[in-house]
TrEMBL record:
Its main location: membrane. Residues 1-25 are annotated as: Disordered. The lineage of its organism: Eukaryota, Metazoa, Chordata, Craniata, Vertebrata. Keywords: Membrane, Transmembrane, Transmembrane helix. This is Solute carrier family 26 member 10 isoform X6. It is a multi-pass membrane protein. Pfam families: STAS, Sulfate_transp. InterPro entries: SLC26A/SulP_dom, SLC26A/SulP_fam, STAS_dom, STAS_dom_sf. CDD domains: STAS_SulP_like_sulfate_transporter (cd07042). It comes from Erinaceus europaeus. The gene is SLC26A10P.
Length: 718
């Protein structure tokens, strides 16, 4: 657009020019989309108009060919290899280089899984042994189905906290209290069944998402939302463990503002705390926290991380046994861990409607955390993650493990980091972890009889270290993106003040609102030519860019859908001088959805430009976008010769058009009135535009329509 401040103009006809042309700039003709398909395309593009019968028949033929390939033996083998990843990575396994690292890392993580699984079972409000079951079955299943080579699955504090809140609400403890041994066993059995039913429903939801190929949903749980969720949940875990640290027999608070209710109850009952359990908690934290710091600071020097949890478990068990703390000071201990595996039980399907509202956020958290962790290490070690296969792996893991009384599980931050630091290379490390947990279930369970529950509470708190330290990233996040910072803070405050599941919903909704706000704030950019090149860049970025008189190149870098079509219309009317032309093209018929709304807006723009004598060219349109525009009636307003493969081709076509000279004849020149300058009134701008002769049409060249998030949602680059 000529006339912008600080911008230079290319000389008009008859003027000398020292403009440097890029090498090989005119060695080929400008390519339209149709010409490009003729030269390089194999078949007719989908956006070209076809008879409805032929279009439907071609699609049916394509589907039939895909089904036929899938039903053949090679197709069945490809499907089997895709669904069982060990068939791909196990034949290429480097036994000499990787086996020792996987064995050491697997055993190290397995040792941590034992006390951590029992500790997280307390968060879930079930007996500790069920945490061991949840540390065995999911790991084994993910080893067979998962694509994350460095991912460690099992019990996760955030999920355990969410499950415990749901279990306490579904199976509340009687108000009378002082339950007998039989009543306590019945209550525990009901709570185990409720936790297993939630795991079953979460797994079924993830399998449904896999069947619909909804792995892309992980993108809606942005990194600020996930980090704020885990950081806020870590504070919930810390507060919920205070009664166990102090030896206070307080009921668990659930619902909104549970964190503040728990703090109030703890402060009220603080004089009744047990000195023995308080001493055990202080000594345990005094050992666990420094060991965590040593493992982080000297991770490069240590051959394997120090297993502080298992050391603390052994020391506390020996101390409690030798000093009879359970009988002399009434210290709460783990008790007998039953050996072997539980009998498989199918969950009560009648309870499913009650738990679906709790299972959905847990399924989303499971997938979001697992996909995020897997992607981080996949990028670090240069391999790929199949998000839909991850849905299958975690869905089957939760579904099958629930039959063995396991509660919801996912990838875990602490054990995944530990696995990588210990030298793990592939999913085979998970099998070594399973061996360690299996040995405890079969033979070593009695050694944990005298383990104080206060130690498990300390393990829960120390495992939150990484989640608490995520708040250190806030200053950097503020410098990088203020919007992401606001999303982080809103999600964190909602999680802390309300609840984890409701905070997740608030974070997701607020994050999507920020995305919409970003699209609403997009500005239309005028592009100019960089001298000596074929590159077009926004004129506001540099005053050295050139503008061709009579040629307007606009860029609208925002998605075009029903929410932005009004802003798109107003912006283009302002730049093209169409606001006062007085003509409105009636809406074309078509489906009334967001994609159709954006496509119809482009069709209306083309019609109004044609009526105003403005020659509209479209450039750089992806095939799916062209198909959507064609179905909305674009080719009724423009011809295929107005669709170009790039901005450079469209501009070259415009500048090489033969126009009629004033004295007769034709020639290749561009002598038109410059584009109306900024600051000119609307009426004067309209007169200037109408003053352009019809023999030399005014040109608007949108470089448009690149889709971003939705394959059918157009992002208009004008």
């Amino acid at each position: 657009m000529s006339g912008l401040r600080g911008a230079r103009h290319c000389p008009g006809s008859g003027e000398a020019s020292d403009l440097k042309s890029p090498p090989d700039a005119r060695l080929r003709e400008p390519l339209t989309e149709a010409r490009f398909q003729q030269l390089f395309g194999g078949t007719d593009p989908e956006w070209q108009p076809q008879p409805q019968g032929e279009l439907g028949w071609s699609r049916w033929c394509g589907l039939w060919r895909r089904w036929a390939r899938a039903c053949s033996w090679p197709g069945a083998w490809r499907l089997l290899r895709a669904r069982l990843p060990p068939l791909r990575w196990l034949p290429r396994y480097r036994w000499r280089a990787w086996l020792l690292g996987d064995a050491v890392a697997g055993v190290t993580v397995g040792i941590v899984h034992v006390p951590q699984g029992m500790a997280f079972a307390l968060l879930t409000s079930v007996p500790p042994v069920f945490g061991l079951y949840t540390s065995f079955f999911p790991i084994f299943i993910y080893t067979l189905l998962g694509t994350g080579r460095h991912l460690s699955t099992g019990t996760f504090a955030v999920l355990s906290l969410m499950t415990g809140s749901a279990v306490e609400r579904l199976v509340p403890e009687p108000l009378a209290g002082n339950l007998s041994g039989i009543e306590r066993e019945q209550l525990d059995a009901q709570r185990v069944g409720a936790a297993a039913a939630i795991a079953f429903a979460s797994g079924a939801l993830m399998l449904g998402m896999f069947a619909l190929q909804l792995g892309v949903l992980s993108t809606f749980l942005s990194e600020p939302v996930v980090k704020a969720l885990t950081s806020g949940a870590a504070l919930h875990v810390l507060v919920s463990q205070l009664p166990s640290l102090l030896g206070l027999p307080l009921p668990r608070q659930i619902g909104y503002f549970a964190l503040f209710k728990t703090l109030a109850a703890v402060l009220t009952a603080l004089p009744q705390s047990s000195p023995a359990e308080l001493t055990i908690s202080a000594l345990s934290l005094a050992l666990l926290v420094p060991v965590k710091e040593l493992n982080v600071r000297f991770r490069d020097r240590l051959p394997t991380p120090i297993p502080g949890e298992i050391v603390m478990v052994l020391l506390a068990s020996v101390l409690c046994f030798t000093s009879s703390l359970d009988t002399r000071y009434n210290v709460q201990i783990v008790g007998l861990l039953p050996g072997g595996f539980p009998e498989p039980l199918f969950p009560n399907l009648a309870e499913m409607p009650r738990i679906l509202a709790d299972s959905l956020p847990m399924a989303l958290v499971t997938f979001a955390v697992s996909a995020s962790l897997a992607s981080i290490y996949a990028d670090k070690y240069s391999y790929t993650i199949d998000s839909n296969q991850e849905l299958l792996a975690h869905g089957v893991s939760n579904l099958i493990s629930s039959l063995f009384s396991c509660f919801p599980n996912s990838a875990t931050l602490a054990t995944t980091s530990l696995l990588v630091d210990a030298g793990g290379n592939t999913q085979l490390a998970g099998l070594f972890s399973c061996v360690v947990v299996l040995s405890v279930l079969l033979w070593l369970g009695p050694f944990f009889y005298y383990l104080p529950k206060a130690v498990l509470a300390c393990i829960n708190i120390s495992s939150m270290r990484q989640m608490f330290f995520q708040m250190q990233e806030l200053p950097q996040l503020w410098r990088i993106s203020r919007m992401d910072f606001v999303v982080w803070m809103v999600t964190w405050v909602a999680v802390v003040t309300l609840s984890v599941d409701l905070g997740l919903a608030v974070g997701v909704i607020f994050s999507m609102m920020m995305v919409v706000c970003r699209t609403q704030r997009a500005q239309c950019l005028a592009l100019g030519l960089a001298e000596g090149t074929e590159l077009y860049r926004p004129l506001r970025d540099s005053h050295k860019l050139l503008q061709v008189p009579g040629l307007c190149i606009l860029s609208y870098p925002a998605p075009l859908y029903f929410g932005t079509r009004g802003q798109f219309r107003r912006t283009l009317e302002e730049h093209l001088g169409l606001r006062e032309c007085g003509k409105r093209t009636p809406k074309t018929d078509g489906p009334s959805d967001a994609d159709a709304a954006g496509a119809r807006e482009v069709v209306q723009l083309a019609s109004r430009c044609r009526d105003a004598g403005i020659h509209l060219l479209l450039a750089q349109c992806p095939a799916p976008v062209l198909e959507t525009l064609t179905q909305a009636g674009l080719l009724d307003q423009v011809t295929p010769e107005q669709l170009f493969v790039s901005v450079q081709d469209a501009a070259a076509h415009v500048l090489s058009r033969p126009v009629r000279r004033q004295g007769g004849g034709t020639g290749v020149q561009w002598a038109v009135r410059p584009w109306p300058e900024q600051g000119v009134g609307r009426e004067q701008k309209r007169k200037q535009m109408r003053g352009v002769t019809s023999s030399v049409p005014h040109v608007s060249l949108p470089s448009l329509l690149q889709e971003l998030t939705d394959p059918k949602t157009c992002t208009v680059w004008v």
